[in-house]
Structure formats: structure tokens, C-alpha cells
Specification:
By secondary structure, this protein is an alpha/beta fold. The chain is built from twelve helices and seven strands. Helix 1 (12-23) packs across helix 10 (223-234), helix 4 packs parallel to helix 5 (139-158) and helix 7 (182-192) packs antiparallel against helix 9 (202-217).
């Protein structure tokens, strides 16, 4: 029976991936932090819940001891979103954004690569369309996804001698609790800004919130993501990148051929309230 490690499996996309792969007969080693999530995961067939804070280096170092000798896949899914204008970002929040979305994902991958190599398994990173182009107000999150895209590309080429595929999943908005709470989280971020930054960026903050509300309504079914991850783990020819919908493909194509000045102007208008 093949085995896969899924991080951030306590909710949302990570939980959906865990459920799908367990139904497919895989042994799923699913990480989460809360006792409630761990107990819920343990109740699923073929699922082995592992308590893991991916920011804890000692916990990651101990992770291989909780896994089988051969691992057919790792899905680096755990992540957070930090919003806000760059000028107003808390450096602690920026550090946390990059630490969880980039450093911790690479730390987990490094820890399990010997087991992946033993099985000639697969490595999957949960990226985003936000790793393909940047929008005002999401610079920290964009930066984390750009970074993981670059690191995954390097890793894929470096692992060619062992024929270990590395895939990037690049979804847009997905119907999960993270997107369900996106406006509340945005309002919380706004409150954390200084009075001066709220004044300076008032029109941008209002415009970005309006855009997030529209995107929230367009959020897609998580099955699109789980289907892509399934393909990345099981197909004879997994893709290097999985863009999951026509809108995302169109956005990528438009950004690629449109001059930077034009992109800047369009996105500035889209995220500004008059």
C-alpha cells in the first residue's frame, strides 16, 4: 500500500486531500496541531495522525521516525495568508509568512527526501496563482508563493538523477474555511495598521476588500485541488504545474504578454475604491 505525508491536514484543502487519498487506499500520514483535528484524522481509514508544528525545527527533525522507511509522496500543504500594504506590514508577520509558507515546507521536504528517494516517490507543493503575478495588498503572500515556485523548480531539476517528480499546484480561490473567513481576517489586518497607514491607504484597503468579496463568491470546489494532487501522486506523467481553471490560465497568459506598466495600472485600479 503506497504512503504519503500531508502537512496541514487538519482542515480545508489538506483535509480534503487526506480524505481522497485514504479512499484511494493510500496510507496517509496527516499532520495537524490541535487535539480535535488529530482525533478527527485518526478516525479516518488508512490515516495516521501526527502532531506537528511545522515551525518547530526539532519536531521536523523527529518527523522521519514517525514515517515508514519508504514514502511515496509528500504534499506540502500547510500555509497561511498575511495581507496588507508593504509599508504597514509587521516584520514579525512577514517573518511568519515566509517561515511557514517557505522555510517550513523546505524543512519538511529535506527531512523526508531520503524516504522519498527510497521509494522513488513524488514531491508536491501547494502554491497558488499568487505565485505567478502580484497584486497590491498581498505582497507578503505573493512573495512566499514566488519563493516556493522557484525552490520547487530548482528541486525538480536537482532530483532528475533519481527520477523524482516535483509538482506545483496553483489554485485560485477555493471554497475552504480560509476563504470563508477571508473578509474577517482582512478586517482584523486593517485594525492592526497604524492610524496613519489606514489613512494613507484608505482607498486601497476599501478596494481590496471589495475585490476579495468578489473572489470569495467565485471560490471553486476543493475537488479541483484534490484531483490535481491525486494526479501528481499517481500519474505516470505528473505535470510540473497544475493550473486548475480557465480564469487562472487566462490571468497567467495576460500577465505574461502585457507590459508591466499596463499590469500595474490595471491591478491598481482593480484594488482601489473611488
Amino acid at each position: 500500500m503506497p504512503s504519503v505525508l500531508v502537512t496541514g491536514a487538519g482542515r480545508g484543502i489538506g483535509l480534503a486531500i487526506t480524505e481522497r487519498m485514504s479512499r484511494r487506499g493510500w496510507n496517509v500520514y496527516a499532520t495537524a496541531r490541535s487535539d480535535a483535528a488529530l482525533n478527527s484524522l485518526d478516525s479516518l481509514p488508512n490515516v495516521h495522525a501526527i502532531a506537528l508544528d511545522i515551525t518547530d525545527r526539532s519536531a521536523i527533525a523527529a518527523l522521519p521516525g514517525q514515517l515508514p522507511a519508504e514514502l511515496n509522496g509528500v504534499v506540502n500543504n500547510a500555509g497561511i495568508i498575511v495581507n496588507g500594504p508593504v509599508e504597514g506590514l509587521s516584520l514579525d508577520d512577514l517573518t511568519e509568512q515566509l517561515g511557514i509558507n517557505v522555510i517550513s515546507q523546505i524543512a519538511v521536504t529535506q527531512a523526508v527526501l531520503p524516504k522519498i528517494r527510497n521509494a522513488r516517490g513524488r514531491v508536491v507543493f501547494m502554491s497558488s496563482v499568487s505565485g505567478l503575478f502580484t497584486t497590491p495588498g498581498t505582497g507578503a503572500y505573493n512573495a512566499s508563493k514566488y519563493a516556493i515556485e522557484s525552490l520547487a523548480d530548482a528541486l525538480r531539476m536537482e532530483l532528475r538523477p533519481w527520477r523524482i517528480p516535483v509538482s506545483l499546484i496553483e489554485p485560485g480561490p477555493i471554497r475552504t474555511d480560509m476563504w470563508a473567513d477571508v473578509l474577517d481576517d482582512y478586517d482584523h489586518m486593517t485594525k492592526q495598521l497604524s492610524d496613519e497607514h489606514r489613512r494613507l491607504y484608505a482607498s486601497h484597503l476599501a478596494g481590496s476588500r471589495k475585490l476579495l468579496g468578489r473572489l470569495q463568491k467565485l471560490a471553486a470546489d476543493p475537488k479541483r485541488v484534490t484531483k490535481a494532487v491525486d494526479h501528481a501522486l499517481t500519474s505516470r506523467r505528473p505535470k510540473r504545474r497544475y493550473l486548475l481553471d480557465i480564469v487562472s490560465r487566462a490571468q497567467k497568459a495576460v500577465v505574461a504578454i502585457t507590459p508591466t506598466a499596463v499590469n500595474d495600472a490595471v491591478l491598481a485600479v482593480a484594488t482601489t475604491s473611488k
